[in-house]
């Protein structure tokens, strides 16, 4: 609240209180609709930039080629045309897009030594980042449901998880993710920013943008927390419920070989979910975290997790290994195209 007084005459003065947001405590002359942001990345020291460039370039190439190999292996092997591998191929595609929204721009900024990103480009990057992050959440949830049906209800699995339902689940995931990203982006459009905005991050992340706004961000914060609980925490609860039922069913299997086979199909998925959620939810629910810890946590779920997915899903999966070997032999036999 702020006190305002209106002088009526020399002997009488009328005073009243009006709400006042802490975001408006700057001079009005500094509040402008800026056209660009500065992405400061991890270090302003020029001596560390080549190391950071090489590290992120390597992780990006591994992510793209690793996930692309998973897609090609699944599409080329008819034995892998099942719901589980259909969702895995979609996850690999989304992971390629996920990292492609942030890493190329970061590498370009380091190479050109220019950290500027214009307002429209920043908003677009934020939109697509939110889109693919939400798709990751939904696909991990759908994959957990698929494993739940396969292990806990094997007799009904092929009937329930038919191609129509699988396609519908992916389509609904896309629609909700697009609408959520659009809502968050439109909420950012209503904000105003002060002078030059320096973001201590390597991309335009929603939390960072909202935190640097000069206008009132209460409504934005409310939408962010509500969406995080509804579209991230609720799917996580569904994943945990599915895996609790899976573990209960596995413990009831009499044969040790059967238990190992059932567990091996879920262990890789559970490890990916743990890594993605522990870092992702930490960024969006922890307001006390420092800027550096936010950036490092974002690297874990936005860069490291998509890079590790092909290794996690292929190393413990004999079907994927066989498909990759078969695909590599086919590529060698065909030889280079002249």
TrEMBL record:
Among InterPro entries, the record links this protein to: GPCR_Rhodpsn, GPCR_Rhodpsn_7TM, Olfact_rcpt
MF-aspect GO terms: G protein-coupled receptor activity; olfactory receptor activity
Q: Locate the G-protein coupled receptors family 1 profile domain: which residues? A: 66-313
Gene3D superfamilies named among the record's database cross-references: Rhodopsin 7-helix transmembrane proteins
**Cellular localisation:** Cell membrane; Membrane
Q: Which residues cross the membrane?
A: 51-74, 86-107, 127-145, 165-183, 222-241, 262-283, 295-315
Location (main, coarse) = membrane
Q: How does it sit in the membrane?
A: Multi-pass membrane protein
The record's Gene Ontology cellular component field reads:
plasma membrane
| Recorded superkingdom | Eukaryota
Pfam families listed in its UniProt record: 7tm_4 (PF13853)
| PANTHER family found in the cross-reference section | OLFACTORY RECEPTOR (PTHR48001)
Give the record's family classification: Belongs to the G-protein coupled receptor 1 family.
Q: What does this protein do?
A: Putative odorant or sperm cell receptor.
Q: What is this protein called?
A: Olfactory receptor
> What organism is this sequence from?
Ailuropoda melanoleuca (Giant panda)
Name of the coding gene: LOC117801742
């Amino acid at each position: 609240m702020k006190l305002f007084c209106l002088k009526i005459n020399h002997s009488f003065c009328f005073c009243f209180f009006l709400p006042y947001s802490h975001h408006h405590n700057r001079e009005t002359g500094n509040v402008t609709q800026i056209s660009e942001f500065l992405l400061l990345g991890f270090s302003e020291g020029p001596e560390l930039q080549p190391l950071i460039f090489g590290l992120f370039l390597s992780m990006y190439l591994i992510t793209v080629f690793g996930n692309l190999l998973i897609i090609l292996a699944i599409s080329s092997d008819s034995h892998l045309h099942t719901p589980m591998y259909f969702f895995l191929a979609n996850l690999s595609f989304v992971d390629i897009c996920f990292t492609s929204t942030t890493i190329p721009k970061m590498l370009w900024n380091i190479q050109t030594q220019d950290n500027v990103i214009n307002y429209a480009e920043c908003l677009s990057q934020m939109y697509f980042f939110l889109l693919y992050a939400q798709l990751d959440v939904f696909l991990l949830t759908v994959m957990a449901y698929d494993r739940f049906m396969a292990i806990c209800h094997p007799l009904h699995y092929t009937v329930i998880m038919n191609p129509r339902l699988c396609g519908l689940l992916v389509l609904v995931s896309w629609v909700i993710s697009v609408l959520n990203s659009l809502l968050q982006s439109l909420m950012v459009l209503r904000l105003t920013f002060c002078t030059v905005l320096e973001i201590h991050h390597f991309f335009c992340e929603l939390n960072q943008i909202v935190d640097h706004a000069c206008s009132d961000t209460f409504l934005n914060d409310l939408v962010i927390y509500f969406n995080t609980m509804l579209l991230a925490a609720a799917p996580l609860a569904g994943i945990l419920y599915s895996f609790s039922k899976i573990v209960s069913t596995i413990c009831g299997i009499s044969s040790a070989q059967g238990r190992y086979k059932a567990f091996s199909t879920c262990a890789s998925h559970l490890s990916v979910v743990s890594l993605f959620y522990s870092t992702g939810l930490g960024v969006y629910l922890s307001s006390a975290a420092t800027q550096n810890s936010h950036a490092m946590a974002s690297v874990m779920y936005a860069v490291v997790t998509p890079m590790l997915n092909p290794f996690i899903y292929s190393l413990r999966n004999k079907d994927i290994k066989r498909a990759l070997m078969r695909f590599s032999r086919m590529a060698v036999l065909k030889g280079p195209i002249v």
